[in-house]
Q: What sequence folds into this?
């Protein structure tokens, strides 16, 4: 079957078809150079040009001020779980972490190796059994903590901050893996933002870090390996060693696609439209429901449950036959999940809703 499906994967996730086609066209002979970017030396002016343009376009998309460094790093977001405390925290110091679901717990476990971690619960089950954010006015943070780390969007359960935290007077650090580039961000509120590429940026294996440069001199890096020091990676222009060059090139193509399609502001509008359509449908249904309370719902990862969970397997199977793929919820949470990142079209969401209606009719 040669049909390209609507891909609802949480990550690695859908990449815009136009970008894949461009990558395909450029694969054997990039820019008349006679080889692909995969085969291009990273110390060549040509690759430096790709890197510079990729950075410039990301700066344009997110309006990143000059006082911030943009780093394209190896590895997943999970590497940043360690790198953040390795750079920011001395062993006797404290940092605040919001405990959400799986990803923030993984993150907290790593941070605890490097300093004192003050935990604040960020997510809870309400009286109706729905997941919700703990309101900020109920948080108790250590105001002397070096920073507050939070996961802006919990990919697995589909809970997302609706606004930046604003009561903590110290530095904000955020894992924005699953909502970077989906909405405008006020970068200046943050000390550091990181995001693995495989949702809204490009293929896996590369992570974007946006960090306030003036913090570098306060970092505790004496015992940190150079490749894990932000100032070192920055000083080397994201190339302390061979960078994930193909991933950087690919991200660059996605950034150009975003700019051609109205940038982050336009994506945000479309993302809200897609999410509202899906949540509205689920809310009026007696067959499906959302496990997340209104006001805490993610517009990137829409968790959906069927009242009768025995239909799940059949749903996933028939969805697949209808070219709607990767709708299975994370193994720790179950149910269904539609990840509707930037590359998912409104058409894709409408197709999913049509399929859900039809499935309900067929089994009831
Ligand atoms: N944080 C969040 C919010 C995520 O969704 C993920 C991956 N899905 C990660 C961290 C971990 O990313 P990686 O696999 O790139 O380490």
A:
């Amino acid at each position: 079957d040669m049909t390209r499906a609507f891909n609802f994967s949480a990550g690695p996730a859908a990449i815009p078809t136009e970008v894949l086609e461009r990558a395909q066209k450029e694969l054997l002979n990039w820019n008349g150079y006679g080889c692909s970017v995969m085969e291009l030396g990273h110390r060549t002016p040509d690759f430096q040009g790709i890197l510079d343009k990729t950075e410039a376009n990301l700066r344009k998309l997110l309006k990143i001020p000059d006082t911030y460094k943009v780093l394209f790093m190896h590895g997943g977001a999970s590497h940043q779980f360690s790198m953040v405390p390795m750079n920011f925290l001395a062993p006797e110091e404290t940092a605040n972490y919001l405990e959400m679901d799986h990803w923030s717990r993984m993150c907290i476990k790593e941070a605890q190796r490097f300093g004192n971690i003050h935990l604040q619960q960020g997510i809870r089950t309400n009286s109706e059994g729905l997941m919700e954010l703990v309101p900020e006015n109920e948080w108790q943070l250590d105001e002397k903590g070096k920073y507050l780390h939070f996961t802006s969007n919990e990919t697995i359960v589909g809970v997302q901050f609706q606004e930046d935290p604003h009561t903590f007077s110290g530095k904000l650090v955020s894992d924005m893996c699953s909502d970077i580039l989906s909405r405008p961000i006020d970068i200046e509120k943050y000390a550091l933002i990181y995001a693995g590429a495989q949702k809204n940026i490009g293929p896996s294996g590369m992570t974007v870090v946006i960090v306030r440069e003036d913090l570098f001199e306060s970092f505790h890096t004496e015992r940190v390996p150079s490749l894990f020091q932000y100032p070192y990676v920055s000083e080397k222009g994201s190339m302390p060693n061979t960078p994930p060059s193909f991933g950087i090139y690919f991200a660059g193509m996605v950034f150009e696609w975003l700019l051609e399609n109205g940038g982050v502001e336009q994506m945000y509008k479309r993302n809200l439209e897609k999410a509202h359509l899906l949540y509205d449908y689920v809310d009026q249904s007696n067959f499906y429901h959302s496990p997340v309370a209104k006001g805490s719902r993610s517009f990137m990862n829409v968790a959906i449950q069927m009242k009768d969970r025995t239909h799940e397997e059949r749903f996933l199977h028939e969805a697949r036959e209808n070219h709607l793929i990767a709708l299975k919820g994370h193994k720790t949470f179950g149910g269904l999940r539609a990840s509707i990142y930037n590359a998912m079209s409104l058409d894709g969401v409408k197709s999913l809703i049509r399929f859900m209606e039809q499935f309900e009719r067929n089994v009831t």
Observations:
- DSSP finds nine helices and 16 strands in the chain.
- Residues 263-363 form a domain with the Aspartate Aminotransferase, domain 1 fold (CATH 3.90.1150.10).
- The radius of gyration is 21 Å.
